[in-house]
Amino acid sequence: MLKGKSLIDPMDFTLEELELVFELSNDIIENPKKYSTICNGKLLATLFYEPSTRTRLSFEAAMLRLGGEVLGFSDVNSSSVSKGESLADTIRTVGCYADIIAMRHPKEGAAKVASTHSSIPVINAGDGGHQHPTQTLTDLLTIKNIKGNFSNHTIGLCGDLKFGRTVHSLVKALSRYENNRFILISPEELKIPDYIKQEILEKNNIEFIEVDRLEKIIDELDILYMTRVQKERFFNEEDYVRLKGSYILNEEKMRKAKQDMIILHPLPRVNEISNEIDKDPRACYFKQARFGMFVRMALICKLLGVWVDVEYR
Ligand code: NCD
User: Fold this and answer.
1) Are 95 and 151 within one domain?
2) Which residues pair with 122 in a beta bridge?
3) Which of 28, 52, 186, 258 is 20 to 30 A (C-alpha) from 239?
4) 123 and 97 share a domain?
5) Best residue for ligand 1 mutational test, from 57, 132, 227, 247 (most atoms within 8 Å of Cβ)
6) Residue 84: its pLDDT value, please?
7) How much of the chain exceeds pLDDT 90, in percent?
8) What is the Å distance from ligand 1's center to 204 Cα?
9) b/e burial code for range 216-238 (CB count within 10 A of at least 16 → b)
């Protein structure tokens, strides 16, 4: 049972628990009214120490659509953090007011630390260049609903695989399903971290290759996951400027792709998918953003224990 748990890493939930989250998400999509007051009287705190549009707003929209309420900050300068308050103290205090926390922080491991000091569930909404498990729930629900299942796919991950936390979480999550193959497409400087390669891919004997050109392999892909070069994690502007135009998905490249390949992107996009692609039926990134809200609704219900699955009653 997920009641009272935190979600810090995509591996925190078992495959069965994930399946129940997706089932509930789809029931919410089909019967939104049934859930519109289920969180009455509950409060979600959104603590965002780093900028966000989609993640924060989708958490807030999720809680409001469940009949709950939200409070929090999206600018650390307006909170006591700017006075030097420790993360542990902020979390303990918020635990006195709210029922559940969604937090984003620039430091890797911050959400984990927060969860050890918290009396209420903590959801990691991104910790530095590390993990982003609710984006992964979003990505998985999109794959499930559009491709039908999580197995036997060739998945291309393209762009900033070094700093892109959504990539790290998605590789972890998809590595638990049968017969997936990864094509990691990045410039030399933005390759996926060794710990993902060694501890996830190699350890589990998962087939993967690293390449630097998208057009060479696009015809093999079932799923193409594009990412933004993570400007905020670069130490110098010059490197960012040099690397940001590495990949631009355009009509010419898409002509080589399979007819049923899907394009995902956690968003925001900068220039890595040209706007002309948006009308291509294979472009699924805005659908993906919508699935993100529903999966967060399901997650909040589960962690608060307001929705208990039949098998646990
Ligand atoms: C991602 C993030 O914050 O890591 N965005 C998101 O949550 N949808 C990806 C990004 O910022 O590039």
Assistant:
1) no
2) 101
3) 52
4) yes
5) 132
6) 85
7) 88
8) 27
9) ebbeebbbbbbbbbbeeebeeee
The atom number, within ligand 1, closest to the CA of 54 reads 8
Does any ligand 1 atom lie closer than 6 A to the CB of residue 46? Answer: no
Domain shared by 184 and 243, yes or no: yes
Q: Is residue 114 part of a domain?
A: yes
Best residue among 131, 135, 231 to mutate for probing ligand 1's pocket (most ligand atoms within 8 Å of CB) is 135
Residue 4 lies in a domain: no
CB of residue 166 inside a 6 A radius of ligand 1: yes
Question: Is 1 contained in some domain?
Answer: no
- Structure confidence by residue, pLDDT tens digits, 63-78: 999 999 999 999 888 7
**From the CB of 228, is ligand 1 less than 6 Å away?**
yes
CATH of the domain at 261: 3.40.50.1370
Ligand 1 center–CA 266 separation, angstroms: 6
CA 209 to chain centre: 23
Confidence of residue 313 (pLDDT cuts 50, 70, 90): very low
The response to whether residue 132 sits with its C-beta less than 6 Å from ligand 1 reads yes
Both 83 and 153 in one domain: the answer is no
In terms of domains, do 273 and 141 share one?
yes
* pLDDT at residue 54, rounded to an integer: 87
| 164-187 pLDDT tens trace | 999 999 999 999 999 999 999 999
Structure tokens given for 284: 């699924």
Structural domain that includes position 108: 10-132+292-311
Res 136 pLDDT > 60: yes
CA distance 284 to 279: 10
Does residue 3 belong to any structural domain of this protein?
A: no
Q: Which residues are catalytic?
A: 54-55, 83, 104, 132
**Helices and strands in the chain: count of H runs, count of E runs:** 11, 9
Please list, residue by residue across 117-130, b when 16 or more beta carbons sit within 10 angstroms of its beta carbon and e when fewer do. Answer: ebebbbbbbbbbbb
* pLDDT tens profile 103-123: 999 999 999 999 999 999 999
Domain total of the chain: 2
